[in-house]
Design brief:
This protein is mainly α. The chain has 11 helices and no strands. It folds into 3 domains: about 100 residues, MazG-like (Helix Hairpins); about 60 residues, MazG-like (Helix Hairpins, Orthogonal Bundle); about 45 residues.
């Protein structure tokens, strides 16, 4: 009963999107390219809702993302490229083929076994490199971590966390040396190497570099807004206050913040 109702709801939704595509002035002129940026923004809003545990918002954002998936599929159908049914069939087939430990006889005892099989299957399906298939437009930190994880699957990885940290310290030294050269290209290259090494270290301490930086940026924004609020109560603004005044308010917030849960 539930499956039938869900299927009916989904088909109704698809019909609504098809109608919008024909009758709405905005929807009717969209292309795969024109929707590209908003698709990405919707995906980020889904992630934001998960990160902040705003589950009612998550429900709404998942709907917005589903709209983009259906609309992109309908646009492709209009161009004779593929249909929404093709999309669903493709992912259904992939899930069955990639999970032989569930739908077949393959044995997988751990999460790592599953990941290893996935990577082997991707190569068997025609990829020439372990690094193929990583989207070029992923955020830089996330992309770096994905590349490192893939290379690690082939055994190209440090053995100990201490070795990775030595690499971080080495890159710090090289960045400082590059700064003295005044060569901007060299400075940028060494700064990138340092970031890459830090991302590598994040893997060894089980931290998502992307989410960690997002969290740090969010915390900075919250504290900076508190500085603005405090100064406003004092009849000042961030443009009239000195750095020392703002830093003092910042530190008050920092020390007043609750200790992290352990």
């Amino acid at each position: 009963m539930d499956q039938s109702m869900n299927s009916t709801n989904f088909q109704n939704f698809v019909n609504i999107v098809r109608t919008l595509r024909k009758q709405c002035p905005w929807d009717s002129v969209q292309t795969s390219d024109s929707l590209r940026q908003s698709f990405l923004e919707e995906a980020y809003e889904v992630v934001e809702s998960i990160s902040t545990k705003q589950y009612n918002e998550l429900k709404e954002e998942l709907g917005d993302l589903l709209l983009h998936i259906v609309l992109q599929s309908i646009i492709a159908e209009e161009r004779g490229l593929f249909t929404l049914d093709d999309v669903i069939t493709s992912i259904t087939t992939k899930m069955i083929n990639r999970h032989p430990h569930v739908f077949g006889t393959h044995d997988a005892k751990s999460v790592e076994d599953v990941k290893q099989y996935w990577e082997e299957q991707k190569i068997a399906e025609g990829r020439e490199s372990l690094l193929d298939g990583i989207p070029h437009e992923l955020p830089a930190l996330m992309k770096a971590q994905r590349v490192q994880e893939r290379a690690s699957k082939a055994g190209f990885d440090w053995k100990e966390k201490s070795e990775v940290w030595k690499k971080v310290e080495e890159e710090v030294t090289e960045l400082k040396r590059a700064e003295t050269s005044k060569n901007q290209h060299c400075i940028e290259e060494e700064f990138g190497d340092l970031l890459f090494a830090l991302v590598n270290y994040s893997r060894f301490i089980n931290v998502s570099s992307e989410l960690a930086l997002q969290s740090a940026t969010r915390k900075f924004m919250q504290r900076f807004k508190k500085i603005e609020e405090t100064l406003k109560r004092q009849g000042k603004s961030v443009f009239s206050a000195s750095f020392e005044e703002m830093d003092a308010i910042w530190n008050e917030q920092k020390y007043d913040s609750p200790a992290p849960k352990t």
